[in-house]
Amino acid sequence: MRFNTRLIHAQQPADPLTGAVNTPIYLSSTYRQSAPNRHRGYVYSRSGNPTRAVLESTLADLESGRVGLAFSSGLGAFATLLEMFPSGSRIVAGDDLYGGTWRLFEHHRRQFGVRVEYVDLGRPGAAAAALKEPADLVYAESPTNPLLKLVDLRTVARLGHAAGALVVADNTFATPARQHPIELGADIVLHSTTKFLGGHSDILGGALVARERKVGERLAWLQNAVGAVPSPVDSFLVLRGIHTLGVRMSAHEASARAVAEVVDGHRAVRTVHYPGLRSHPQYVLARRQMSGPGGIVTIDLRGGGAAVRRFLRGLKVFTLAESLGGVESLVDHPASMTHASVPRAEREAHGVTDGVVRLSCGIEDPADLADDVRAALGRV
Length: 380
Ligand SMILES: *Cc1c(COP(=O)(O)O)cnc(C)c1O
What we know:
Blueprint: H1 3-9, H2 50-62, E1 67-71, H3 74-82, E2 90-94, H4 99-112, E3 115-119, H5 124-130, E4 137-141, H6 153-162, E5 166-170, E6 188-192, E7 206-210, H7 213-226, H8 232-243, H9 245-263, E8 269-273, H10 283-289, E9 296-301, H11 304-314, E10 319-320, E11 330-332, H12 344-349, E12 356-360, H13 366-378
Parallel strand pairs: 2-3, 2-4, 4-5, 5-6, 10-11
Antiparallel strand pairs: 1-7, 6-7, 8-9, 9-12, 11-12
Helix pairs in contact: 2-8, 3-4, 9-13, 11-13
Bound molecules: pyridoxal-5'-phosphate.
Residues 73-75, 98, 100-101, 141, 145, 170, 172-173, 192, 194-195, 204, 206 line the site of pyridoxal-5'-phosphate (PLP).
């Protein structure tokens, strides 16, 4: 089956009990046993829940992996993943990361003696230099949050494997509708399903998908041991969001292109970061690695923080809020919001200055979004 059909049918049979076409929400924390340890596969909902199980096998299918696991948030998934790496482990991570990911890496570095090195994995030379020495984990976002830098996942996976590392890709921005890291060589894909997969800004969720069963079983053990699992209702809502991922991503991209055309070359804008523009330094890689550039456009305003405040006051359709990937357009100021936990010097060293604004383009009429951004830039 092709991808848009798999979104709706893969691993989602009609309910075997009733024929319901939608996966029922099994609100039960526990399951009757006919004798001690005699049961139908479900014992306790931290270990497994039938609604979550359908979501998990759907995620595995969409990401071309063997094992899918759902979590209570993206960071819940990431924290569980980090449990795999004892003190002394060497981790090579990208240098432009979601702020919460960076914060937890730093916590593990300080608290547990894990070695974390941040490298611009978008530069193959830098990745190769860092992976000359053995490593246990390579962690890459592509595209990155918020600067939409790309990592050549095939090359980095090859380098990571040669260094003996497990290679993990955060595929939150691209989604499986636009990029398949496991097919490019990654061992594990991570998601914040809060974003495009959920798609409606109404739940928190996360996911890990493992290419190999053995890695997946280790993660499944940790998922149960740590317990950062989603509720059955949230599992259902992610499944429901997944059904429309194909049409939503096309609409997000139409909006993002309309917005990118307005900001590209505008006198108030110093830099535009959007992999769908020819001016993006990795445009060729984007065309090769992704089937579309996605729905996020990041801009750097010339006037810094003061210009950002004027721009934000001028927006009528975009809502100032954290998060992204929902049907409604959202605007974020990383320096003071999503990435405020990263110290200024570190942030600015890799380009997240006070003028940076991240636009999550929703599925409203693209012309309204373009008008909104044009009018707000006019006030800068
Ligand atoms: C939001 C986000 C996360 C964290 O996910 P939560 O669901 O907020 O815990 C991780 N990675 C990326 C790229 C994100 O955008």
